[in-house]
Amino acid sequence: MEYISASSAIDNGPTHPRMLSISPEDLLTFNQTPLFTTHFLQSPTQSNSSIQSNPTIEPATTMSKALYLTQVDGKPGQVYYPLNTQTKPAPTPQGRELLIRMTAAALNHRDVFLRQHLYPGITFDVPLGSDGVGVVVGAGPDVSSPERWHGKRVILNPGLGWKDSPDGPEDPNGYRIMGGTRHYRTGTLQEFLVVDEGEAEEAPEHLSDAEAAAMPLTGLTGWRALVVKGGERNSGKGAAVLLTGIGGGVALMALRFAIARGADVFVTSSSEEKIRRAVELGARGGVSYKEEGWEKKLLAMLPEGKKFDAIIDGAGGDAIEKGVRLLKLGGILSVYGMTVAPKMPFLMQAVMRNIEVRGSTMGSRQEFKEMVEFVRANKIRPVVSRVLQTDLDDIAGLDALFQDMKEGKQFGKLVVEFGKSSESKL
Ligand SMILES: NC(=O)c1ccc[n+]([C@@H]2O[C@H](COP(=O)([O-])OP(=O)(O)OC[C@H]3O[C@@H](n4cnc5c(N)ncnc54)[C@H](OP(=O)(O)O)[C@@H]3O)[C@@H](O)[C@H]2O)c1
Fold first, then answer.
1. Which Gene3D superfamilies match (predicted)?
2. Distance (Å, rounded) from C-alpha 114 to C-alpha 179?
3. What would the pLDDT profile of 7-40 be if each residue is shown by its tens digit?
4. Contact at 8 Å (CB) between 27 and 101?
5. What is the pLDDT of residues 147-195, one digit of tens each?
6. Quick check: CB of 169 below 6 Å from ligand 1?
7. Gap between the Cα atoms of 187 and 386, Å rounded
8. What residue's CA is closest to ligand 1, atom 19?
9. Is 337's C-beta closer than 6 angstroms to any atom of ligand 1?
10. How many CB atoms lie within 10 A of CB 372?
């Protein structure tokens, strides 16, 4: 159920946001006054050299709100850390960093696990959030071509330490995921953040801000679990693919990818309504996993004698036991999560049927790029369950969004758009 092992992840040490040599107005008028320079965005009345040569100038500071966990007593699994908002100076981009004004961020199940202290590396001084979209408003001195990034809407690769190996993260320090842990000291639930330019991708133009924010983590996880681990033969055109727990963010991204690839997709869910909605999105059919003997009902939906080529599962539990009955000989069970429990038994029947169980995590930087390109080329839209248009200090509203995920009410992603006052449904 955990994305990274606590022992393999590194601690980058604390970060201290620095004073930014611009005023909020400069940022807001960014598009009108294209003074995008390396180091900072500057006021039309200040020259670059005047600021650099006179460090005693005390410029107006742009402040940035961010969402954090509040430390309270409690045991893992029993505690539910409250949220709090803190306002600090926005960071100044250094080296190859881009300064990004975030416009939307999305929740993942890991954010709930963090609040429950069921996730490694939890810390209370790093903003939450692994998914987000924003606009580039500044660049560090070593950014290769700052003008290329000027005003671009970008999404962020949510993990560090994994370049392009098909096997797993190359970095001996392990894979580090953005948001709420000491391993990667930034998160998307904040108004301004800095990331290395190599971690940003231009957001596909056909996506709204909410949809773009919804895509990175679940898109990458769904991509690797379905496309990389499933493989063309078992999850491409004409393959029969089962996606379990279709209400989840990853499962719905996998649904979008599988349908675009021409697979025959079936689903399970706790909810008939979610199955109906999945069918509207192109699934062939589905059953409730709460129903006794659901696997027989599901097999009856396939052509006579046919079984599934691949199951893409984020629940764990009895997935292997069910998989033995549902999968063809040599079928693939691609497991990207264990929402039900962090262990599942492996069975001799699975050995006898040559079932391949493949663990799958998020993915490499290269896979992130490929996923974004596929989304752009196929005009894929992540499914967004609810958008909260609010300010990051609307703790009650944000708590309600978390509650949707905790109770599994969502069908797709739960998104926060910053700085707006009313709530909307997509
Ligand atoms: N390894 C990684 O790198 C990685 C990355 C992302 C996510 N994950 C893990 O993958 C899991 C899903 O993540 P997510 O963000 O998509 O979560 P999510 O949006 O909260 O979705 C969870 C879904 O799990 C389904 N579910 C619950 N109990 C189930 C059961 N007994 N059988 C089948 N499905 C069940 C529910 O589907 P219905 O609503 O349809 O009933 C629910 O919507 C989590 O455990 C998460 O930690 C791992």
1. Medium-chain alcohol dehydrogenases, catalytic domain (3.90.180.10), NAD(P)-binding Rossmann-like Domain (3.40.50.720)
2. 10
3. 333 333 332 222 233 333 334 333 333 334 444 4
4. yes
5. 999 999 999 999 999 999 999 999 999 999 999 999 999 999 999 999 9
6. no
7. 20
8. 248
9. yes
10. 23
**CA-closest residue to ligand 1 atom 18:** 248
* Residue in this structure with the two tokens 């970060």, named with its chain if needed: 15
- Is the C-beta atom of 364 inside 6 A of ligand 1? no
**Would you state the structure tokens that stand for residue 275, as one six-digit string?**
């199955």
Question: Ligand 1 pocket: which of 109, 223, 273 to mutate (most atoms <8 Å of CB)?
Answer: 109
Question: Which class is 63-203+383-418 in CATH?
Answer: alpha beta
**How many other CB atoms are there within 10 angstroms of residue 58's CB atom?**
8
| Ligand 1 touching residue 108 (CB < 6 A) | yes
If residue 390 lies in a helix (H) or strand (E), which one and from where to where? strand 384-390
Q: For residue 180, give both structure tokens.
A: 């709420």
Backbone angles phi, psi at 284, to 5 degrees: -80, -30
408 lines ligand 1 (CB under 6 A): yes
Cα 109 to ligand 1 centre (Å): 7
| Domain extents in the chain | 63-203+383-418, 220-359
Tell me, yes or no, if the pTM score tops 0.70.
yes
**Which CATH architecture fits 220-359?**
3-Layer(aba) Sandwich (3.40)
Two domains, one topology: 63-203+383-418 and 220-359: no
